[in-house]
Amino acid sequence: MKKNKDLSACAASELPDGSPYSIAIAVADWNAEVTHAMLEGATETLLKSGVKEENIITVHVPGSFELTSAAGMLLNYTSADAVICIGCVIQGETRHFEFISHAVAGGIAQLCASQCRPVIFSVLTTNTPEQAKERAGGKCGNKGVEGAVTALRMCHLNDQLSSCKSKKSR
Ligand code: DLZ
Predict the structure, then answer these.
(1) Annotated catalytic, 36?
(2) Which residue, among 150, 98, 147, has the nearest Cα to 125 in the 3D structure?
C-alpha cells in the first residue's frame, strides 16, 4: 500500500482479507445524513473484503459523546475483533464542539490503550456541514470506508503479533 494513500480509494484486490473477522460498528445518529453515509461506506467495504454479513454488528447511539460507552459495551459483550466508531461533530456557535470532540477522542484513545482489540476513530470534526459531506462520500472520499480498511489492517496486525507470542512460548 502506498505511503499516505487515501484509503477510501482502496481497490477490492488491495483490501485485507476480512473473512475470518467479526467487526462491530457504533454509529452516532447526530448529523445522520453524514454518519449514515459513512456507515454505508464502512459496511460495503467490510462485505467486499469478505466479512460475513452476520459477522457485522451495528449499534446506533444518539451522539458522538456516547460512542466511547458503546464501544466499551461492544468490547465487553461481543466477541468482535475490532470496533469502528462513526460520528460527526460540526462546529456550532457554542463550545460543544470542543467538549464532544475531546471527550470522544480521549475516550476512544483510552479504550485503545487498555484493550487488546482495536477501536477505530472514524469521527469527523469539521467546521461546516459541507466539509463533513465532502468526507462522507464526496470529493474527499468516505471516512467510513477508511475506518473499515483500518479495522481490517489492525485485525491482521493483532493476529500476526499474537502468533509471535504463541511461537515464543513454545
Ligand atoms: C448535543 C450535541 C451537539 C450540540 N452537537 C453534536 C454534534 O455536532 N455531533 C454529535 O455527534 N453529537 C452532538 N451532540 C450530542 C452529544 O454527542 C450527546 O449525544 C449529548 O450531549 C447527550 O450526551
Answers:
(1) no
(2) 98
* pTM of model > 0.85: yes
Total Cβ atoms within 10 A of residue 122 = 29
How far is CA 81 from its chain centroid? 12
> Which ligand 1 atom is the nearest neighbour of the CA of 87?
11
Residue in 36, 100, 122 to alter for ligand 1 test, most ligand atoms within 8 A of Cβ:
100
Burial of 47 (0-12, 13-18, 19+ CB in 10 A): middle
Question: Is 123 within 8 Å of 88 (Cβ atoms)?
Answer: yes
Q: Domains, the chain, ranges and CATH? A: 20-168 (3.40.50.960)
From first to last of the 170 residues of the chain, give the pLDDT tens digit: 445 556 666 666 788 999 999 999 999 999 999 999 999 999 999 999 999 999 999 999 999 999 999 999 999 999 999 999 999 999 988 999 999 999 999 999 999 999 999 999 999 999 999 999 999 999 999 999 999 999 999 999 999 998 886 676 66
